[in-house]
Amino acid sequence: MTPAVAGAFVGALGGVGLLVVAARIVAIRRTSLDLRVLPWVQDLPRLDTAVGPVRRLVAPSPDEPSASPLAAASGLVAPALRRAADAVDSVLGGSASVQRRLQRAGLETTVHEFRVEQVVWGLVGFAAVAAWRVLAALGGDTRVVPALLLCACAFAGGVIARDQRLSSQAVARDRAILAEFPVLAELLALAVASGEGPVAALDRVVARSTGELSQDLGRVLAEIRTGEPVIVAFDRLSRTTGVPMVAQFSQGLAIALERGTPLADVLHAQAGDVREAGRRALIESAARREVFMLVPVVFLVLPVVILFALYPGLVGLRITTP
Fold first, then answer.
1. Does any domain span residue 78?
2. 48 belongs to a structural domain
3. Which of 205, 228, 252, 287 sits in a 20 to 30 Å window from 304, CA-based?
4. What is the pLDDT of residues 180-211, one digit of tens each?
5. Phi, psi at residue 194, to the nearest 5°?
6. Where residue 197 sits, what CATH number does that domain have?
7. Long-range contact list for 238-244, CB < 8 A, 24+ apart?
8. Which range is least confidently modeled, 147-156, 165-174, 295-304?
9. Is residue 27 part of a domain?
10. Which one has a higher pLDDT value, 202 or 321?
11. The domain containing residue 258 runs over which residues?
12. Where does it reside (predicted)?
């Protein structure tokens, strides 16, 4: 390492340290809202478990020591992460879309917490590329501008990767819900046909099933038990779900309850429609991938067949040829 590179590296480390110290001094001088409000609401319960899977958490007292060994480190970097998350949110926007995908993915995370996760993913990518460029600088590559551009691209790539991960989580949960829906609809139809009411049938199905759709129905049941009308609860489920079939099911169930239509027939029809839609989607997927289905036949099976057919003849010609 040349003296110039070593000096630049030490200067960069010193500048980053000074920025961290200055940011922490500013954060310490600013009294947060939690410290001003929480002393007056300490008599509230810390954990209130409602009926069903809905739970409400109250922030702990600031005077209570945390059991996490990373509490001090998180306290140091939390203000900077929050400001970086606000900056990412102002640049990217789309908070409504993020909130929608968080609901579809079944994550109990706010939009701000998701932005913080994006910043953390970006910092991980930035640190990986920065370490690689430092090693390259030790080897003699002292180009600064390409290294800064690569680090910036790594940070942006980490932010985008977390967003794509959320989209994939939402899509995977939608597929799981669509796969579970016919069975749960049939169970609800059987429970209603046996003489139980809609709420009792929903309670029986939720208590005896597991899965993503069962969790959504559990939330609906918890809202009904807390005084929400059944029609309003199912309307909310139809608005928040990302699966059209489930939205149609919720709307049909709400309309059936409102107009007095037999629920068993509606549920059986909904389950049949979902099964038919799944069968049709499978046929369409097979039709679109017909060419790809020929790839193993053409490139794997056919060459082996030709080899087995021609190899004995080649061996015979080699033996009979003088």
1. no
2. no
3. 287
4. 888 888 888 888 888 877 788 888 888 888 88
5. -80, -5
6. 1.20.81
7. 240/103, 240/104, 241/104, 241/177, 241/216, 242/100, 242/103, 242/104, 242/170, 242/173, 242/174, 243/174, 243/177, 243/178, 243/181
8. 295-304
9. no
10. 202
11. 177-278
12. Cell membrane
**Cβ-proximal residues to 301 (8 Å cutoff; 6+ apart), any chain:** none
Chain segment 47-96, per-residue pLDDT in tens: 443 433 334 334 444 444 444 444 445 566 777 778 888 888 888 877 88
Measure the CA–CA gap between 181 and 257, rounded to whole angstroms.
19
Residue 223 lies in a domain: yes
E-state strands within 60-205: none
β-bridge partners, 190:
none
Alpha carbon of residue 111 to chain centroid: 12
Residue 35's pLDDT band, with cuts at 50, 70 and 90, is low
The total of structural domains in the chain comes to: 1
Q: For residue 293, what are its two tokens? A: 């289905």
> Please, which contacts does 142-146 make with residues 24 or more away whose CB atoms are closer than 8 Å?
142/2, 142/4, 142/5, 144/8
Distances from the Cα of 297 to the Cα of 8, 282, 283, 311, angstroms: 59, 21, 20, 20
